[in-house]
Amino acid sequence: MLGLMQDWPLLQSRLIEHAARFHGQREIVTYSVEGPIHRTTYSELQVRAKKFAQAMARLGVEEGDRVGTLAWNTWRHVEIWYGAGGMGAVAHTVNPRLFPEQIIYIVNHASDKVLCIDLTFVPLVEAILDSLKEVRHIVIMTDRAHMPTDTTIPNALCYEDLIAAEDGVYEWPELDENTACGLCYTSGTTGEPKGVLYSNRSNVLHTMVTAGSDTLGVGARDAVLPIVPMFHANGWGVPFVATMTGAKLVLNGPNHDPETMWNILENERVTVTAAVPTIWLSLLKYLKKSGKKLPWLNKVTIGGSAAPRSMIEDFERDFDVRVYHAWGMTELSPLGTIGAHTAATAELDFDGRMDVQSKQGRVVFGVDLRIVDSDGKPQPHDGKAYGHLQARGAWTARSYYNLDEEILDADGYFDTGDVATIDPQGFMQITDRSKDVIKSGGEWISSIDLENAAVAHPDVKEAAVIGIHHPKWDERPLLVLVMEDGKTISKDDMNAFLAERVARWWLPNDVVTVPDIPHTATGKIHKTVLRKQFKDYRFPGL
Ligand code: ADP
What we know:
Blueprint: H1 12-22, E1 27-31, E2 37-41, H2 42-58, E3 66-70, H3 75-86, E4 90-93, H4 100-109, E5 114-117, H5 122-128, E6 137-140, E7 157-158, H6 159-164, E8 180-185, E9 195-199, H7 200-210, E10 223-226, H8 238-245, E11 248-251, H9 258-267, E12 272-275, H10 277-290, E13 299-302, H11 309-319, E14 322-328, E15 335-338, H12 350-358, E16 361-363, E17 367-372, E18 386-393, E19 414-422, E20 427-433, E21 438-440, E22 443-445, H13 447-455, E23 460-470, E24 474-483, H14 491-499, E25 510-513, H15 527-533
Parallel strand pairs: 1-11, 3-4, 3-5, 4-8, 5-6, 6-7, 10-11, 10-12, 12-13, 13-14, 24-25
Antiparallel strand pairs: 1-2, 8-9, 14-15, 15-16, 16-20, 17-18, 18-19, 19-20, 21-22, 23-24
């Protein structure tokens, strides 16, 4: 027997419709690409998203067509998400930090029909334009006054002109909730980038769970700053969460320097924010130097790479800010786990709580997680056994866009490529990416744990650990350090520091310092490039 409840498709357009109706005057503030601070409201944003949909239809965009973006977090970018997704097309966020060849590959693979770009990326698009095969229109996301007069992009369209030409009298179509609405490619640190195609249903379910108090914890009284770019794994869903709850949405545009970030946090009274660890490293350093505080901020979500324990402690102890350490990936929309305390762990002393918060958090409803050994046999959740982390769920990819490749096992699980432990309370801890884990004499050493232990040293700016071939142990760790200006450290001193934090047999066989460590387009340490840089390295005496 079927239930007798109404069929109300979970559509992304319903998020903005709801915000416009019930939180219509709530602000969306952008520290814009052009410079000034721009303020709009959810009701105005919905009208303009509808105008964008009308403009796209006029340009020939049809249901299922891809509308690409090379853009920062701005109100116009949010309009494109709602406008393209709402009309049944697909908003395809392209990461502008990728190499030009990767951007060309992604735009062509997705067959983007329209490409909307910020002023910042005009030179980039000029340089690759000849290789973009199916793009019919390029829209520059600015007003007439700021349109470049000397661009070589033929017939470049002005975003504000397109909006001004429409009347906004438009009803969002009642789509099937499984209709695609967003597309995001993984950054392709291994092989070609792969497209994850989000549906209206998956995005709305993800939003509903991500808003909750044990996840991002966002309500109508909050001011939310998603520093994480909208082109990184669905912007972690943060703009959708703000819209659904009627929170004030604060967008940092192209600004990422710590001083501007602090000004935004302070002036807009931001209560909730989210970003990768590298952003917080520079902000914390700036705060320590300037003596500034974070009086409004309550919660910060850190994910994308492992948050070092020292960072979590600094936020909690020095700034009274709760850190929610989260794990996810593009294929999971991206949320998989997030570190809110249980009733029991909340009672622990500071050290105990920090132990818990350094893990990647508990699995959220909507995702199933398990760890398996190399034969696919599930491993116990005892906090000790580690295995390949697998996921399935309501917002987990079942295949990649336009790739003929089976990605689920017989039980419907997707292999995340991470190695992890899960403890009896459900807290998951990432040991490593499976390709980064160091295999020493049949045992595994976690490069992440070693890196986090090393960055706790006050003179160390950044640390990366890679496995180097060893004739006896197969692989042993090499610690690569970037030191704070003017500082040096010997191998013995570093290992003495590490010995208090990790098992003795994990201690690196050598420690080298370099001026920079390479990063991926999403801010992670680029181990593939680092391994290449050290491919001829041999441990001393071998
Ligand atoms: P990319 O395009 O950079 O691969 P993803 O966001 O999809 O972007 O990357 C997902 C991967 O990032 C995860 O599989 C995991 O290895 C890593 N990751 C994400 N969050 C964390 C975290 N909190 N701790 C450790 N690793 C993380």
